[in-house]
Amino acid sequence: MVAKEHILQEIKDYILIAFGIFIYAVGVTVFMLPYGLTSGGVSGVSAIIFYATGFEIQNTYIIINLCLLIAAVKILGFKFCLKTIYGVFSMTLFLWLLQRIVEVPDPDNVGHYILPKLMGPEAHFMACVLGAITEGIGLTFCFEHNGSTGGTDIVAAIVNKYKNMTLGTVLMFCDLVIISSCYFIFHDWFRVIYGYVMLFICSFTLDYCMNRRHQSVQFLIFSRNPEPIANAITQSHRGVTVLDGEGWYTHTERKVLLSIVRKREQTTMLRLIKSIDPYAFVSMSNAGGVWGEGFDKIKVSESKKQKGKRILVFASNSQHKLAEVRAIMGEKYEIRSLADIGCYIDIPERAGTIQGNALLKARFVKRYFGFDCIADDTALECKALDGLPGIYSSTYGAVSNPLPPAETASLPTMEVYNEEVSQEMFRILHSQNKKVQKPTDYDPKANIEKLLHDLEGKDRTAELHTVVAFITGDYDDPAKCDTHTFDGILEGTIAKEPYGNPSDTFFYDSVFIPQGQDKTYQELGIDMKNQISQRAIAVGKLKTFLETVPLKATK
Hints:
Blueprint: H1 2-32, H2 41-53, H3 57-76, H4 78-102, E1 104-105, E2 113-114, H5 124-144, H6 152-162, H7 167-180, H8 183-186, H9 189-213, E3 216-223, H10 226-235, E4 241-247, E5 252-262, H11 266-276, E6 281-287, E7 310-314, H12 319-329, E8 333-336, H13 354-369, E9 373-382, E10 389-390, H14 405-408, H15 418-429, H16 444-454, E11 461-472, E12 482-494, E13 512-514, H17 521-524, H18 526-532, H19 534-548
Parallel strand pairs: 7-8, 7-9
Antiparallel strand pairs: 1-2, 3-5, 3-6, 4-5, 9-10, 9-11, 11-12, 12-13
Helix pairs in contact: 1-4, 1-5, 2-3, 3-4, 3-6, 5-9, 6-7, 7-9, 10-11, 12-19
C-alpha cells in the first residue's frame, strides 16, 4: 500500500512539474521574447543569444543544460538530477511547441516567421509584468513538487557543495550578471531595468504563491463538550491540545482546545465544530508560520556553537552510559539524553532479543520525538547457563523461570508488535512526572546472588554482549528510515564472589572479569572499563560507520 501511494505521488509530481514548466514557457514565448525582454537563468542566456543571432531559444537552452547536467550527475549524483533532467527536456519541448503555435509570417521577410506582440508594439512594461507573474506561477508548481528547470539551479547546487554560499546568493549573482549582459546586445539600459523588474516580480510571485499554499490558522475552541470535538479533530488527522481554563465571570473550569490547520482546511474545521457544538465559542487567527510535524520543516542555519555538530539522542538517562558514549563519539556530535528531549519514561524492553530491544527504543524516540537516535541493550551471557541471564540481565533475580536465548528467539519479533508496544509507551509518555523513572524490579544485588548460585560448580566462562541500534531518516514515514545495528562482545569469566557492594554497581561490574585482566570491572575503574567495554566496541563501530557512510537527510 505504501509503495502504491508513493508511486501515485511520484506520477502526480511529474504531471504537475510539466504543467508548471508549460506555464513558465508561456511566459517566455508570449511575453518575453516578442518584446526583447531578458530574465535570469539559462532561459535568459538563451534569449540573449536568440536576440543577437536568431538561434532559437530552445536549442541554446538544451545545449547549456546538457553540459551542466553532465557535470551535475558526476558531482551531485544521478538521483539528485532525475527530476531536473525531466524538467530540462520538458522545457525544451514546450518552448519549441509554443513558438510553432503562436508564430506568424514576417511581413517584412517572406518565408520567415516572428513571434507577434499580442498587446501592441509598445506594451513592453505590461509584457514585463505579465511575463514575470506567469513565470513565477509556473515555477511555483515546479518547486512545490520537487522539480527544477535546471540551469542556474544546477550551478547553485554545485557551488553550494564546495563553498559556504547559500543557493539564493548564487542564483541572485548569476541572474544579475545575465540580465546586465543584455546591455551589450541592445545598448539600452531600459531593457536592463525591465530585466531587473521581471526578476523582482517573478521572485515576489513565487514567494507569494508558495507562502500562500503554506498559510495556516490557529483555532481556540471554548466548548462545554470538548471531548467529542477533540476526538473528531484527531480522527481528521490533525493535532489538538487540551488546555485548562477558567471562566472568570462564572468561575467554572473549562477545557480549551488548541488546534492549527492549513488555511484551506478552516471551513472544514468550522463545520466539524458546529456539527458537534453549535454554541461553542471559537477564535480563529492567522498563524504567521507553523513548523513541525504535519507542517513545514524548520530551515534555519545553525548557531556558531552548533556549527558542524550532528545532534544524536542516546536513548538512556544513565549518566554513566552518557559519559561513555559522549567520550567515544567526540566533539563532532552532540549527544542528548532522553531527559534532554523531554522523555522521562523507562522504555519497555519487550522484544525478546537485545537487538530487538535496542531497535524498539530507537524507533520509539525517532517516531515520537523526531531525532536521529542511538539505543543500546546489554546482556550477560554465560556458557554454562545456555546464554542466561541474556535479556533478563537487569531483572534476573526477580525472574523465576527465565527462557534461554534459543527459546526467546521464537517469541514474536519486535516488528510484529512494535505498534502495540509503541502505542502503550505513547500513552504513558506524558503521564510521568518530570523525574527519571527507574524500573522497580532492578536489583543488582539479587541478580548477582542468583547468578553465583546458578553457577556453583559450573564453567564460569561468560561474555558481555551489547547491541547498539542507530536510526536516521524521515520521521514522517518510519518506513523510510535507515536502521543499523552494531555488536560489541567482550569475553571473560565470572568471579566466585563479588567485589565491593553489588548495589552500587551497574549490572555485573562486581563479578565480571574481562579476558586478559585479573580484576573485575569495578576494580578496574570507570576509565579502564570505558576503554575496553563491549559498549565501547559497539559505539566505536557506529562512529566509524557515521564517518564513512553517507546517510539520508534528516528532519
